[in-house]
Amino acid sequence: MKVKVISRSTDEFTRERSQDLQRVFHNFDPNLRTQEKAVEYQRALNAAKLDKIFARPFIGAMDGHIDAISSMAKNPNYLKGIFSGSMDGDIRLWDIANRRTVCRFPGHHGAVRGLTASTDGSTLVSCGTDCTVRLWNVPVATIMESDNLSDCSSEPRAVYMGENAFWAVDHQWNGDLFATAGAQVDIWNHNRSQPVNSFKWGTDSVISVRFNPGEPNLLVTSARSKQLSKCVNYYEYNILNPCEPTWNFKMETGSANDRSIILYDLRVSSPARKLIMRTKTNSISWNPMEPMNFTAANEDCNCYSYDARKLDEAKCVHKDHVSAVMDIDFSPTGREFVTGSYDRTVRIFQYNGGHSREIYHTKRMQRVFCVKFSCDASYVISGSDDTNLRLWKAKASEQLGVLLPREQKRHEYNEALKNRYKHLPEVKRIVRHRHLPRPIYKAGVLRRVMIESERRKDQRRKAHSALGTIVTEPMRKRRIIKEVD
Amino acid sequence: MGAKQENGDPEDILPPLEQELSHELDMKVKKYLRGEGADLEVLKDKKLKGQLYTRENLYGTSAKTAAKTEKWLLPSAGGYLEAEGIEKTWRIKQDTIGREVDISSAKNQYDIVLPDFGPYTLDFTSSGRYMAAAGRKGHLAVVDMKNMSLIKEIQACVLVRETVRDVVFLHNEMFFAAAQKKYPYIYNRDGVELHCLKEHGAVTRLQFLKNHFLLASINKYGQLRYQDVTMGEMIGNFRTGLGRTDVMQANPFNGVVALGHSGGTVSMWKPTSAVPLVKMLCHPGPITAMAFHPDGHLMATSGKERKIKIWDVRKFEVLQTIRGHAKTLDFSQKGLLAAGTGSFVQIFGDFSGSRNYSRYMGHSIVKGYQIRKVAFRPYEDVLGIGHSMGWSSILIPGSGEPNFDTWLANPFETTKQRREKEIHSLLDKLPPETIMLDPSKIGTVKSAKKKEKPTKKEMEADLETAVEAAKGTAIKKKTKGRNKPSKIAVKKKEIVERAKKPFLDQQMVEEEKVAKKKRKIGEEIALPTALQRFSRKKATA
User: Fold this and answer.
1) How far apart are CA A43 and CA A37, in angstroms?
2) Which residue of A207, A467, B152, B355 is most buried, as measured by CB atoms within 10 A?
3) Considering only CB atoms, which chain B residues are within 8 Å of A28?
4) Within-domain flag for A29
5) Can you give the residue range of the structural domain that contains A341?
């Protein structure tokens, strides 16, 4: 007879001294875990609910400007710093961590339309409606660290005069060129008081410009026809019915087709390519991780992602805003971007997602004119009409501060659970739900109704006409008028 | 003859020991894979296919790792009893085993003689550390089995002079429920009465569903009740209508509660439906005991006609019939089946792996002692026997799971660990809707079929629940004259009728539809044969 029974000595399974950690043992046998799938589902549900409970994205507002924020720039070399310019010509450097002004740059007489910092973070370039471009020395990081609350202010290093008002400025990546946009696109050098190069294509005025992060000599601009500038004012009256402009512009497209996106190459003397859309593009941002792709924030409430090599159709249309999208900025990870809109909300989209992942709004935030993703991809900064900069978390329910390994693991587990059960109706419902302010909700509903009725009408028109006479274009192509080389 | 000349299959080149090992590993991997993977070939969506492919790979590697961990890293090995020569395992006596094993294990063989309080029933906590024993004539005790110390003893007889029919631990050793003469009570470890569950009535059997925190009870009048012990809410209250029973067992795999009735049927219940999920006729006579295999696929029942049957609960068919009587049955963690009757316990084991139970061990206690309950102690090779003269404990090698998981059930749990586990298990508490026959359906997406019509059975169930709810409505006290019993009876009838009406209406509409269809078909057939070939062909479904 051979016999053995389970026999456990207490010493082997418990700790020796009270200072030791408790000993733990694993047995992964499925039979010991009854109803494991139901338990896991329940945990996923709890994770989704906890996520909602901890979703407090708003960190704080930074006030100090006395007019609407018109432009912002990140300091690529310093994580905590952000520049903002307002409509009254005030430029400030903020310490995001302490949410206070560190330095002011007085000098502009009209609105500051464009702000940008050089890649090494030492030079700030600003331009405005007072027809000047100003270069500033950025104070070194030690000033920001110091605790004295008295604002330091600095004098411009150089002031260059232009002929027309400037609308935007962007600095080259790893170079000392910068481009301004206005009546034409001017390329400047830090040391020269005159533009080194100028581009012009048609009669449009250029409203935004952005250098390619991968190819330093490539830049993209968006332009609008001068004759149509009244349409911008038109928006002012139409905010309560934000869907309207979309349809208004559509009617005018035949006559003035200058709402274009133009690609320039600095190595050749003429613009490279031009894409004409039905509505104006307010801002453009390159995807820093896939530098052949850029996303355009359009007046028709949508954002369009394009491949710069293939402009005949958008790669993706990002819908959800209910009014013109004013500004866009990519996260340094290239996986998502943030948009600010005239409908008083900030939204975060996946780089390939048709709808937004997140919407941020507060009662006091007015029209958002500029948004920026922080350089560590964990915060979003918005500047709005109500003279405030607002700081938001990029992930609404993220835990701030240093995480213990256990906390980190728990967060990862919860994330994985949510991801696994995201298609189940109950989890999906909880994860997707966002509270919206009533006007935005109503505008969204109205917009959907209008789009649906348009679609229905098209369908009927198609059904009642001869086969093949009416071709429905996909949404990715519908808003493009033509592409010019 | 080199390896080259044989065929190139690597399986054949391996030496036999390694072949055996790899085969063993394959079997284990199969266990950890928890069923078949998704069939990727039928998918047309390339992106989804890619995603699922990586996912399946991940499952594969994790299963393999788990299998390897089980093979090489687990701290203890399981017990066994092997006969040599002409020995038979069932002839080996407990004394012989006791002489062969180490002292600490031999300590697990003992008899506690408590002649005063009559047949004892037992329950273990899920970690096997604590045991609750209840004497029929009013004796409750909680014992720490590790160091064999009595934690608390209550003599309900001395205090309240009541019978105790059943005892069951709640989620941990801090609380236990006892079914006493009139009502079940919840006590804490120190013997303080916390709750008297009056709604349950005179309960004969109690079961606790650990994942759902539900206390299920069946009372003298055949009423099955579910109570949520966290919030105290009564989740379900159903009349079985099959008479008094004291055979009740919860299936650990899916939380379904099975009741064995005197008519020979076994009915299975969930807390969200007033009609049983399953009613199966298992024995020609009354059912005396029932037990579920821990993997939830096997059920053992025994009837008064001296037969023990092993059932496949997934197919509801009998796998094996063993001759023998059992007043109490229990499955161990490793799948051994203990059957106790009179003063004799028999252990059956499935050694072929093909669900074929054969005799493994036997044990007789002192003649004249009547066994009331057998219960395997989890994570130990020990069988507890409650009988009319106290309780005994014997060694059954190979019955318990040798390796425990600290996060699931820890026999060496500290107070802090117990508290933490309590919180976590409360967070993971399952809603009662998750109790169903096939729990693998949870967490899957219902395929978008055409709108499902409720089946006749479901409609009947709905009707019954509605009627049950209507009967439960409280009737307001009216002024003199209007509160007569006859009036109340009429009113109650009216309420029930009102509750029934929508269902009956719907039934009528459906019947009419069917009749119309039949008529239509009848008309078509009525066509003259010469014209029938012109009639419209019936649409193929």
Assistant:
1) 10
2) A207
3) 32, 66, 69-70, 405
4) no
5) 58-403
Q: Which of A28, A30, A41 sits opposite B443 (nearest CB)?
A: A41
Which residues of chain B make contact with A39, given a CB cutoff of 8 A?
211, 428, 430
Spatial neighbors of A11 by CB under 8 A, at least 6 apart, are: none
- Tokens 């006590």 identify what position? B187
Number of domains in chain A: 1
B:446-505 residues touching chain A, CB 8 A cutoff = none
Segment holding A460, helix H or strand E: helix A438-463
B443 interface with A at CB cutoff 8 Å: yes
At position A245, the amino acid (one-letter code) is P
Does some domain include residue A32? no
Q: Quote the minimal CA–CA distance from A45 to chain B in Å.
A: 10
Query: What pTM was estimated for this model as a whole?
Result: 0.83
- Closest by Cα among B230, B187, B177 to B207: B177
Distance CA A132, CA A130 (A): 6
Tell me the nearest-neighbour CA distance from B409 into chain A, angstroms: 9
| pLDDT surpassing 60 at residue A61 | yes
H, E, C per residue of B65-115:
HHHHHHHHHCCCCCCEEECCCCCCHHHCCHHHHHHHCCHHHHCCCEEEECC
Chain B residue whose CA is closest to A42: B428
In a domain, A461, yes or no: no
pLDDT in tens, B257-296: 999 999 999 999 999 999 999 999 999 999 999 999 998 8
In angstroms and rounded to an integer, the radius of gyration of the C-alpha atoms of chain A is 27
Quickly tell me which residue has 């998981």 as its tokens: B405
Tell me, what's the ipTM? 0.80
Q: What is the pLDDT of residues B309-367, one digit of tens each?
A: 999 999 999 999 999 999 999 999 999 999 999 999 999 999 887 889 999 999 999 99
Residues of chain B found within 8 Å of residue A419, distances taken between Cβ atoms: none
Provide, rounded to the nearest whole percent, the portion of chain B with pLDDT above 90: 64
Say whether residue B69 is in contact with chain A using an 8 A CB cutoff: yes
